[in-house]
Amino acid sequence: MLSIEGVETFYGHIQALHGVDLHVEEGEIVTLIGANGAGKTTLLMTICGHPRAAAGRIVLEGEDITHLPTYEIVRRGIAHAPEGRRIFPKMTVLENLQMGATVADPRYFDEDLERVFTLFPVLKERQHQRGGTLSGGEQQMLAIGRALMARPRILLLDEPSLGLAPLVVKQIFEVIREINRQQKVTIFLVEQNAYHALRLAHRAYVMATGRIIMTGTGQELLANPEVRAAYLEGGVKH
């Protein structure tokens, strides 16, 4: 469904991605783990067109989208819930969700809104509350809900557990599984909480210094001694 082929990305003269190759098949949850600064967020941003890939190709269902403007990439079915949530803090919950729906067919707005409220009942309760007054977990739910309002076929999630309490982390990962299983949305997940991410994933990749250094099923990487030593042992499992 989504193929990353030899992608290289730069910030000025500094190369952030070095010939990255990976693929996400329809219906999968694919996880990308790695340390801070490995290039994970840069890869998601490059998929969305900012920054642009300096070399290589990004292909969505056979179409090269490498050089398309971001709004065209979104129209083709890719939505991004970014690191740090980046909701509109002065807008209400409902207004944030309306912003997410701007690229979707308006005929489905009510249906999509109810779908988000079913996933996140607290957002329905707080729909007229300003986004900036929500808790961190509620803001993360809003960021994911806003992305879902675009009716994506593939959802890019960047560090959805960052800074959240263990119980909220568990809830967020359960919702991600439900989005994939029940709503048939393909998921590409970037996550530092390797334990939860690998348990959730059908397949996974490990990134270091802008390169893919390992791949396998989620269970294979959970059991891999190198992965355990680098990302799991002594880490947070909750």
Describe this structure in words.
Belongs to the ABC transporter superfamily. Keywords: Amino-acid transport, ATP-binding, Nucleotide-binding, Transport. It holds the Pfam family ABC_tran. With 238 residues, the protein is α/β, with parallel strands linked by helices. It has helices at 40-47, 70-75, 93-100, 109-119, 121-125, 136-148, 166-181, 194-200, 218-223, 225-232, and strands at residues 2-11, 14-24, 29-33, 55-60, 63-64, 78-81, 154-158, 186-190, 203-208, 211-217. It folds into two domains: 1-77 and 155-238, 3-Layer(aba) Sandwich (Rossmann fold), CATH 3.40.50; 84-151, no CATH class. The chain has ten helices and ten strands. A six-stranded mixed β-sheet has the order 6-7-8-3-9-10, with helices on both faces. Strands 2-1-4-5 form a four-stranded antiparallel β-sheet, with helices on one face. A hairpin with a 2-residue loop joins strand 9 and strand 10 (211-217). The chain starts with a strand and ends in a 6-residue tail after the last helix.
Intertermini distance: 32 Å
Q: Could you say what the CATH topology of the largest domain is called?
A: Rossmann fold
Strand order of the largest sheet: 6-7-8-3-9-10
CATH class of the largest domain: Alpha Beta
Query: What's the architecture of the largest domain in CATH terms?
Result: 3-Layer(aba) Sandwich
Strand content: 25-35%
What structural class do the secondary elements suggest? Answer: alpha/beta
Count of individual helical segments:
10
